[in-house]
Amino acid sequence: MKTLNLHPYAARPDLLPPVVLKAIDTVTDQTVRSQVFVAEIDPTEMAGDTFCATYGIALEQGANCVVLKATRGDKTWYAAGLIPVGSRMNIGGAVRRRLGARLVSVAPLQEVLDATAMEYGSITVVGLPADWIVLVDERLCNLDHLFIGSGYARSKLRVPGSLLTLLPNATACPDLVQ
Predict the structure, then answer these.
(1) Residue-range domain boundaries for the chain
(2) Taking the CB of residue 114, how many other CB atoms lie within 10 A of it?
(3) In percent, how much of the chain has pLDDT > 90?
(4) Taking residues 127-147, what's their average pLDDT?
């Protein structure tokens, strides 16, 4: 098992994309912001379940971000969902209804990378474009801390669950996963 070396996020700005760093810096709750840490990881072990197994993190303390593309009539928009590692998002049911969309699907990878300025496999809900809707499994919001993507494949963020409710356009949802 490998060890994570956690650093206050501001001490290692090299491990965060500028959009993520800026988003954390704009959190007005100093107590929450002081609980945000970053750790450098092996990028080959960034996937949620692999990361948890490699670094001895309980699956319940890991979360994955899924970026979605929603459409209704001529309107198309993006949204993101944050769900526990090992869970499956209820895209065709609860998510579609919450977004008020006719059709919801996983967004095309290149569109996501271009829109977020983040790396494949480490998209995070922190620092997404301001007009994106962010749906968060409500169980995650109550955790003392959880591990999420950092925007770079070579690092992970450890954040308090309360940070998730402070993100722009974020909503805690009881029915996000199947």
Answers:
(1) 6-164
(2) 9
(3) 86
(4) 96
pTM over 0.90: yes
Return the closest-CA partner of residue 121 out of 53, 178, 50.
50
Burial of 28 (0-12, 13-18, 19+ CB in 10 A): exposed
Tell me the residue length of the chain. Answer: 178
- The C-alpha atoms of residue 124 and residue 121 are separated, in whole angstroms, by 9
Residue 48 confidence (pLDDT) above 90: no
User: What backbone phi and psi angles, to 5 degrees, belong to 109?
Assistant: -55, -50
Instruction: Give domain 6-164's CATH superfamily.
Output: YbaK/aminoacyl-tRNA synthetase-associated domain (3.90.960.10)
Rounded average pLDDT over 35-60 = 91
Query: Which residue has tokens 């993507």?
Result: 149
Least confident range of 25-34, 66-75, 89-98: 89-98
Sign of CA dihedral 7, 8, 11, 15: positive
> Rounded to whole angstroms, how far apart are CA atoms 104 and 69?
6
Q: Where are the beta strands (DSSP E) in the chain?
A: 6-8, 37-40, 63-72, 75-84, 103-106, 133-137, 146-149, 155-159, 170-173
**pLDDT of 178 higher than 90:** no
